[in-house]
Amino acid sequence: MTNDVEFPPDDGQPVTAWSGHLDKGARWAARGDDRAQVMFCFDGLMRVETGADRWFIPDRFGIWLPPGTAPHVTLAHRIEFQIFLLHPRFCPRLGLPGHPTVLRATPLIRGIGRRLMSSAPLPAAERRRLGWVALDEIARLERPDLHLPGSGDPRLARAMTHLLDRPRDAGNLARLAADVGSSERTLSRLFQNETGMSWRAWRDRMRFVLALEGLQLGRSSTDLAASLGYSSPSAFVAAFRRQSGMTPSEWRHRR
User: Fold this and answer.
1) 3-state SS string over the chain?
2) pLDDT tens-digit map of 163-185
């Protein structure tokens, strides 16, 4: 990673945390060990990859990574980044899944991260109390689905990479199949079998998470409609509402 993230020694506390700002282009490539990780993004957006799968984490969201997960994180621009390492003894009580899961952050969890990272060293008893509160809050956080499944099949992996690089091509499965050397029928079957999602469902999820990234960067609905392959800005707004329950403008206001 281009920025240093240094944790205090593990002294058996339920939670060890780091909170601070990381610059555009920074990368986090942690080794998977017996501690779960919860990472939060504030005032920006980050992409998280584990294996072939991707998550797009916008402002005030985070991701739960169970023990043994080795994530790769890329930042589109400067963010406030928080990461909590959870002692393996306390992870089972959280009731969180055995796979990475997006979480919606709260002001409380952000404040705990900052407090644990305060410049004045905290007494062990205070760190322990804050750690217990952090565990309780993490277990209660909402879990929106911003997961974009990947695939180990080379044909489907090529198609996914093509769409992420050129999402305006997402309107035509036949053309996409020809571009990656497959048939439309085969590619449609691979999407369903490899991701558990139909081609259209995967495409719509991809468009949605890329739209979140674009809105975070201040792009307009007109610009996003064109770059994501929609026929018009109104079609983009309608699709965004189906995915999120709100228009792009409402999403900006809620942020």
Assistant:
1) CCCCCCCCCCCCCCEEEEEEEECCCCEEECCCCCCEEEEEEECCCEEEEECCEEEEECCCEEEEECCCCCCEEEECCCEEEEEEEECCCCHHHHCCCCCCEEEECCHHHHHHHHHHCCCCCCCHHHHHHHHHHHHHHHHHCCCCCCEECCCCCHHHHHHHHHHHHCHHHHHCHHHHHHHCCCCHHHHHHHHHHHHCCCHHHHHHHHHHHHHHHHHHCCCCHHHHHHHCCCCCHHHHHHHHHHHHCCCHHHHHHHC
2) 988 999 888 899 889 888 889 99
